[in-house]
């Protein structure tokens, strides 16, 4: 994340007053289901947590961010969780939340340049490589403005990931190393395989911009993997309010309201994208057609002034145009799927440490259906606060999670290690989440 921990606690977070597109260009609609207070939401507890990561020199500048769940079809007990640790690279965990592999991010290409920084991760299943079909973990390298690809082999117990990135992959958004060093680079990520063509893609957002890019994943020689850019789409940075005024989320000068959390519904090819200080968009994953805003954050429409001394926004009076379920930032998005096509879109409401659930079916227009919190199971196993990333898999995962698994990032692991910043991932029984949402 680009915001400071203090900045996240304010009612307004990153974005900008720069005008781009208006609401006349894209319709804004939100469901109107009422919500209860945070305290009234049902609670679920984690069954396990990964070792704490520390974003300091001694901890290798590792900061937990985004998870993905890989299921070993031959032996679900050997399924894995692949997660980003930013400058700390990737971490791979077993279902007991024990670390089985640490994959470093690339070193800086030279003095004064940005080192690799893995932001988000997703999976591609059964991609046909020159070396045979493979499941891949795909991650956005925010430091290098590139995607990186890792082949997953569950039979290699201590080293299941192997780097298969084509060394010639180009930057996603930047045209030079100087631009890369400015770090308006590859940020959020979701993968998608088009049922009609069998081709696989990555949707990638740009840090501090509203741009989302569609990249086709391209197998190369020697089992390597690259990509080519197909098209881009720019979401709005400026919005027309019901009173006729124009509003942009408050943020540091020059920054636009970025997207991070993204997920594609494989059943219908719809992309859900969380614009952090705005809300959740739904659009075609091929980035054609017109995006629709299906829910807004509470802070939508609230004016703000950026204070350079505190590096925070000072909020003005709330005109009442925001939503009622999400408190900025809207972060990790994931799907809780069901065999009959039903299920939920889950969204992390980072500002109030809750999760919102929306109906997955388009016929119900992604209606809000409830929410929940991930709370402490014991003094040693805390809940999830300021959650960045989340991943759900609704499939049996052996004895530990026969009803599926939800993995969520915890932005403040407790009891922690003194004054060191501590983050990690919580493992939650997906059956308990279903029960909480259905109550």
Topology diagram in text:
Elements: H1 5-9, E1 43-45, E2 48-49, E3 53-54, E4 67-70, E5 80-84, E6 90-93, E7 99-103, E8 118-129, E9 132-141, E10 146-152, E11 161-163, H2 177-181, E12 186-193, E13 200-206, E14 211-219, E15 225-234, E16 239-240, E17 246-247, E18 259-265, E19 270-275, E20 279-284, E21 292-296, E22 304-307, E23 312-315, E24 330-337, E25 343-349, E26 354-359, E27 368-375, E28 390-393, E29 405-410, E30 422-429, H3 430-438
Parallel strand pairs: 1-27
Antiparallel strand pairs: 2-30, 3-30, 4-5, 5-6, 6-7, 8-9, 9-10, 10-11, 12-13, 13-14, 14-15, 16-17, 18-19, 19-20, 20-21, 22-23, 24-25, 25-26, 26-27, 28-29, 29-30
In short:
The chain is mainly β and 439 residues long. 4% of the residues lie in helices and 40% in strands. A 5-stranded mixed sheet has the order 1-27-26-25-24, covered by helices on one side.
Question: What does this entry look like structurally?
Answer:
The protein has 439 residues and is mostly beta strands. The protein has helices at residues 5-9, 177-181, 430-438, and strands at 43-45, 48-49, 53-54, 67-70, 80-84, 90-93, 99-103, 118-129, 132-141, 146-152, 161-163, 186-193, 200-206, 211-219, 225-234, 239-240, 246-247, 259-265, 270-275, 279-284, 292-296, 304-307, 312-315, 330-337, 343-349, 354-359, 368-375, 390-393, 405-410, 422-429. It has a 5-stranded mixed sheet with strand order 1-27-26-25-24, covered by helices on one side. Strands 2, 3, 28, 29 and 30 form a 5-stranded antiparallel sheet that branches. A 4-stranded antiparallel sheet has the order 4-5-6-7, with no helix packed on it. A hairpin with a 5-residue loop joins strand 6 and strand 7 (99-103). The longest helix has 9 residues, at 430-438. The model is unreliable at 1-36 (pLDDT under 50).
């Amino acid at each position: 994340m680009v915001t400071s921990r203090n900045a996240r606690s304010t009612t307004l977070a990153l974005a900008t007053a720069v005008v781009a597109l208006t609401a006349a260009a894209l319709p804004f609609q939100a469901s109107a289901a009422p919500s209860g207070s945070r305290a009234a939401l049902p609670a679920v507890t984690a069954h396990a947590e990964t070792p704490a990561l520390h974003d300091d020199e001694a901890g290798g500048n590792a900061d937990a961010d985004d998870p993905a769940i890989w299921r070993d079809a031959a032996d679900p007990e050997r399924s894995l969780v692949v997660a980003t640790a930013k400058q700390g690279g990737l971490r791979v965990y077993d279902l007991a939340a024990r670390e089985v592999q640490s994959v470093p991010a690339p070193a800086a290409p030279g003095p004064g340049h940005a080192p690799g920084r893995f932001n988000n991760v997703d999976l591609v299943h059964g991609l046909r490589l020159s070396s045979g079909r493979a499941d891949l973990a795909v991650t956005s390298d925010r430091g290098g403005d590139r995607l990186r690809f890792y082949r997953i082999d569950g039979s290699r117990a201590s080293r299941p990931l192997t780097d298969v990135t084509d060394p010639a992959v180009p930057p996603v958004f930047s045209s030079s190393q100087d631009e890369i060093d400015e770090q308006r680079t590859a940020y959020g990520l979701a993968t998608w395989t088009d049922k009609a063509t069998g081709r696989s893609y990555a949707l990638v957002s740009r840090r501090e911009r509203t741009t989302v890019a569609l990249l086709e994943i391209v197998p190369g020689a020697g089992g390597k993997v690259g990509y080519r850019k197909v098209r881009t789409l720019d979401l709005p940075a400026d919005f027309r309010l019901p009173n006729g005024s124009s509003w942009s989320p408050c943020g540091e000068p020059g920054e636009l309201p970025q997207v991070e959390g993204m997920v594609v519904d494989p059943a219908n090819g719809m992309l859900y994208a969380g614009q952090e200080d705005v809300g959740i968009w739904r659009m075609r994953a091929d980035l054609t057609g017109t995006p629709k805003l299906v829910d807004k954050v509470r802070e939508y429409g609230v004016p703000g002034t950026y204070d350079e001394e505190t590096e925070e926004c000072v909020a003005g009076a709330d005109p009442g145009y925001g939503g009622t379920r999400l408190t900025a930032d809207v972060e990790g998005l994931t799907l809780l799927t069901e065999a009959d096509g039903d299920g939920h879109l889950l969204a992390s409401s980072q500002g109030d440490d809750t999760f919102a659930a929306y109906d997955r079916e388009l016929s119900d227009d992604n209606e809000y259906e409830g929410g929940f919190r991930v709370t402490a199971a014991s003094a040693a196993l805390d809940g999830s606060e300021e959650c960045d990333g989340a991943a759900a898999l609704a499939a049996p995962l052996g004895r530990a999670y026969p009803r599926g698994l939800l993995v969520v990032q915890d932005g403040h692991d407790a009891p922690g290690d003194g004054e060191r910043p501590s983050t990690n991932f919580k493992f939650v029984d997906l059956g308990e989440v279903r029960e909480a949402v259905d109550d």
